[in-house]
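Could someone model 9WO with this protein?
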Amino acid sequence: MKFHVLSIFPDFVLDVFNYGVVRRGVEAGLIEHAVHDLREYTTDRHRSTDDMPFGGGPGMVMRCEPIYAAVEAIRADHPSPLPLIYTSPAGEPFTQQMAEELAVGPDLLLLCGRYEGVDQRVLDNLVDREISLGDYVLSGGELPVMSLIDAVSRLVPGVVGDSQSVHQESFTSGLLDWPHYTRPENFRDLDVPEVLLSGHHANIDSWRAEQALIMTFRRRPELLSPEQLLRAKQILGL
Ligand code: 9WO
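Reply:
Sure, complex below.
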């Protein structure tokens, strides 16, 4: 999987590839990346990537020429299709299922917005997919793009050692995660559930499945099917 990223702050984005699981994926050659500075695709002497909005109003708008020039140059130099993704609160909500789809799909070209946003002609005619990472507005699209890169990279086969775990985790199984504990067994009179110390793996697995169901029932009941809701209520004696 190769990620191309377009930003006016390339150094900010680069760090997502320098730590943890994603860094190990890069070192293993499973993840490739190229972060492009939009300013490299400007033609004026001020290297401007933004301009005042037609119709007036506050702030600046990202100009379409540098974005078009960058996307066309990167695509011309890339051997396979390169869909352009833009992150904004107006996009389709990002889900674990979408991350799974992107992880097996083509390489990706990700555009990070700044200022008040990008010229609408980019959204209408160049962007293939607009994706939201949540209902909030940030100062730039870099953090949502970095979150998407992390979520997708983890699902690229071989990036996470125990590949089964990423497909068991939250949301992939449709449920939230179960509680996790590690040493010490007793911390300030706070104990670890006995079942986790029993070494009885069948019991541990069913305890974890029940805890994930209860956690989801309590925090995100809308994720549960009617059968799962009923089961959770039975477990809780409701
Ligand atoms: C902001 C915005 C707000 C409401 C509806 C649509 C919107 N589009 C944008 C936009 O493109 N903003 C640019 C990128 C410029 C300002 C910083 N940007 C941004 C992206 N802020 N927050 C996001 C974002 C992206 C994905 N998921 C949540 C927030």
